[in-house]
Write a structure and sequence with these properties.
CATH topology: Four Helix Bundle (Hemerythrin (Met), subunit A)
CATH class: Mainly Alpha
Helix content: 40-55%
Number of helices: 7
Strand content: under 5%
CATH superfamily: Protein of unknown function DUF5063
Shape: globular
Order of helices and strands: HHHEEHHHH
Oligomer: single chain
Length: about 250
């Protein structure tokens, strides 16, 4: 007489025999991750963040200059320049970046920004001209007349130069150029444009229009009193509506 087979357990907590496991070769993902100190990290991660901010600025300014939404141009430019200067601040706070080569590689022709400059000037007229002091620590330095359109076009030219290095795979060269030109040109230029744009928006939001700028030109030798004038009712008419403010009578 054969033995009875044991009955299958109906207990839901009973252990079920696992399927056979086929062992494979260990992969690199299973190896422990080694965290390098900041000084030993590849600069690519920092460069990617900076280049993304710079390219975003160039694309945004180019789109704004097309004039599809002129009523929103000033607030949008204020936002874009503010974000760009965050990247500039990071470059300025970073230790000196030393290029790998003694001489800068030839990039060929520089980007032509004349069309961008002209489009911005036409869109921003008559609020394009503003008064600027180049070095606030130089005593009794008279303000000079500047143009927002010139500033933004010059900044785009500087940034595009470094972006060409970055796209060519010269990461350190690109970072060096962006940092160097931030100190030598585009940092102060963008800061001046930012102050002008912020002032325009602030005067509208606070309902404090300034005198009309008709006749003010950067080619003229003007006194400080004349340079202190800025866009008034025309400025308010152009950007007060999009900001939801009442017009100035």
């Amino acid at each position: 007489m054969s033995k009875k087979q044991p009955a299958k357990s109906t207990n839901p907590e009973a252990t079920i025999a696992p399927e056979p496991i086929v062992m494979t070769e260990p992969t690199a993902a299973l190896e422990p991750t080694v965290l390098l100190p900041a000084s030993a990290q590849d600069p690519d991660s920092f460069a990617v963040q900076i280049s993304d901010q710079i390219e975003s600025f160039i694309v945004a300014v180019t789109e704004i200059a097309k004039g599809d939404e002129p009523d929103s141009a000033v607030p949008f430019l204020l936002l874009e320049v503010s974000q760009l200067l965050l990247a500039g601040g990071r470059l300025g706070a970073h230790e000196d970046i030393v290029p790998e080569e003694r001489y800068e590689p030839d990039l060929g022709p520089e980007r032509d920004v004349d069309d961008l400059r002209e489009r911005l000037a036409a869109m921003l007229e008559p609020i394009d001209v503003y008064s600027e002091v180049f070095d606030p620590y130089e005593p009794r330095k008279a303000p000079v007349a500047c143009r927002i359109s010139d500033d933004l076009a010059d900044v785009v030219a500087d940034l595009s130069h470094g972006l060409a290095h970055y796209r060519a795979g010269r990461t350190v060269e690109a970072l060096w150029w962006w940092q160097f030109s931030y100190f030598s040109n585009w940092g102060s230029t963008a800061s001046g444009a930012l102050r002008a744009l912020q002032s325009l928006v602030a005067h509208v939001r606070l309902n404090q229009p300034l005198e009309d700028l008709n006749g003010l030109d950067t080619d003229e030798d003007l006194a400080e009193e004349a340079l202190a004038e800025a866009a008034g009712k025309v400025m308010a008419e152009e950007i007060a509506g999009p900001l939801g403010l009442r017009s100035v009578q």
